[in-house]
Structures are given as structure tokens and as C-alpha cells.
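G., the chain you wanted modeled:
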Amino acid sequence: MTSEAPNIHSMWNFNDPAQSEQRFREALAAARGDDVLILKTQIARSHGLRGDFDAARQLLAEIEPDVAKAGFEARIRHALEWGRSWASAVHKDELQTDETLAKARAAFEQALDLSRQAHLDALAIDAVHMLAFVDRAPADQLKWAQVALTIALASSQPAAQRWEASVRNNLGYALHQLGRLGEALTQFEHAVLLRQRGDDARRTREARWMVAWTLRSLKRNDEALAMQLQLEAENDAAGTPDGYVFEELETLYRDSGRESRAAHYAQRQAGLKK
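Predicted structure as C-alpha cells:
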């Protein structure tokens, strides 16, 4: 396993953590040394993505003595997953106390420090990205996104460069929350261009949704409507209708006084929830 662990990246399907866990468990059969520990950190992450934080922490605690004697990557990934077991996008707000956030911060800061020592830029960006789940004020999220973008743009490592689209999305979202809509639109449009260079159509559509959402915030509703209708058609063709698209279309049509069209998209949203 290389220092950037590209096979870890290829084994992940974040839309199906259980499938990913199975891949990691299958890889354990041939793994040795630090590779075993690295794979187990990802199994722990798969538990966390399914909301089973106790299982994630139990596995991480079991391997902690061996991780303490391991190389940089295993130690970094262990710290990242320990932090994610306390704070992440999956956690409900009521689970985020001062105590849990402090535990998460300590782990993410440790991961960032180790990543910088080892010059593992992608893992450094991951740690910075996670600190934004601890410091949730828009100004703090903007700060962390700027730090992550600086690392990504300065890095020659492909794994770090792959982060740029996600980081620009985070930067755009923080700017949007701060009311800096023109700057947010610039970041979201840049993220679209980066996504279009890849082969993940779903992520590209998500990036375009952010652009359309911001266009509506800028009162450029005709442009926003055209984009959301195109996204609706593409999602339907892919068999992945998106409630966020329907929500925006409902709002756009209601703002223009076209209540029957707004009601149509309200019904489409309701249909997804059944």
C-alpha cells in the first residue's frame, strides 16, 4: 500500500458503506503490517457513516496499541476516524456537545499535525475539512476552506489535487452563508468545471445544483429555472430523482406566481418521501 493509499480511494462507495466495508474486509485477507490497521480504520469509518459510532470507536480502540507503533498513514487515519466518530456530517445536532466537539478537535488537529510532518497533503486536507465540522460558524468554515484550498493548489500529489472541487464547494457554501453571493457563485462555477473533467455525473449534477441555487439567491431566477429543469431531466434519465431539485423548482415557480407548477413539484418531493 502506497503512502497515498489509492486502493483505499477506489474501494470506497460512500453511497453504500456496507458494500465498502465488505471490500475492506476482503482486502484484509492479503494485508500485512500497517495495511491491516489502515483497512480497519476504514471499516470503522463505514460504521460511522451508518450512524453506529459506538462500533466505530470500539474497533478503533482495539487497534490503538498497534497504531501507536505504526507509520504515519495508519496513525493519521486512526486519528481522523476517531475524530469522525465524535463529529461529522452524520451526527445529529443534539449529539454535538462541547465535550464531543473537543474530542473531535483534538483528533483532527493531531491528524493535521502528523499529515504535515509526513507531507501527506490529501490527509492534511481531510483533517482541515473535518475541522469545519467542529468550528461551524460560517466565518470559521470559510477560514478552513481557504486553508484546504491553499494545500490543494500547492500540492503535486494527485490525491490532494482531487480534493479541489469539494474544497471549492465548501468555500462557496461558506461565502453564500456570509451573503457574499457573487464570490460564492465564482467558486461553485469553478467546482463545476473541475467536476466536468472527471467521470462522476452525479457529483457534476450536484455541483451544477449549487450554481443554480446561488443564481436564485442572486435573483437570476430565469437562469436558475433553466438549470434546475435540465437537472430534473438528467436525474430522471439516470433514475435518480432529486428532492433538492424539486424543492428549488417549487420555490422558483411559486416566486413567479405559477402555483400549479409549484404544486407539481411539491407532489414530486412528497413522492420521494413515501
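The radius of gyration is 20 Å.

Shout if anything looks off.
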